[in-house]
Amino acid sequence: MSVWKGRSSPRKGCKLSKETKRKIGDAHKGKVLSEDHKNKIRIGNAKALRERPEIRDKLRTWVGRKHTRKTRKRIRQFMKNAWATPEFRNRLIGENASGWHGGKSFEPYTPEFNKALKLFIFERDKNICQNPGCEGLSKRKCPHHINYDKKDCDPLNLITLCYSCNVRANFNREFWENFYQEIMLERYRYAA
């Protein structure tokens, strides 16, 4: 049993040097975690996001950040120049893009994924984005496939998200898949 259980560490808030961070990283390299342990970490992270707004705020400090007109103009000019170069474009488009998943987004939806199913999902979720950390940046709602498989139209695999949360869910897919599965599991634990 830890001596510090229930109390904060005496080193809490201390800055670590780059060398110390490197040593800690080296010590953890190659460490293999069991699937059970990984799932506990994922569930803990998802619950922390839902239950502790200060953690959610730390993760989303970039949302709502205001830039001056001068800064916006500089960013716009930089991006315009960057997109004009073929090297920049080629790194972000198609197979070279970091979010490329083998052209999965170009696959068609199945006939079961129709307007009636979408309306059913929206009504079930009361037309509200089901992401507990949603900042309400978008009024437009979309049904989201939790496991990212367009052919799996099981209602327990679909969840209502606002457009902003749906876009965010396309990055770090493993985290969001576990996050939304946990929400559906809590809500419909006894339905199955």
Structure characteristics:
192 residues; mainly alpha; two-stranded antiparallel sheet
What would you note in describing this structure?
The chain has helices at 18-28, 35-51, 53-59, 69-84, 86-92, 115-124, 163-168, 173-187, and strands at residues 141-145, 158-162. It has a domain at 107-187. Helix content is 46%, strand content 5%. The longest helix has 17 residues, at 35-51. Strands 1-2 form a two-stranded antiparallel ribbon. It is mainly α and 192 residues long. It has eight helices and two strands.
Question: Secondary-structure blueprint of this entry?
Answer:
Layout: H1 18-28, H2 35-51, H3 53-59, H4 69-84, H5 86-92, H6 115-124, E1 141-145, E2 158-162, H7 163-168, H8 173-187
Helix pairs in contact: 2-8
Our measurement of the CA-to-CA distance between the termini, rounded to an integer number of angstroms, reads: 39 Å
Question: Count the helices. How many?
Answer: 8
Shape: globular
What's the SSE pattern? HHHHHHEEHH
Helix content range:
40-55%
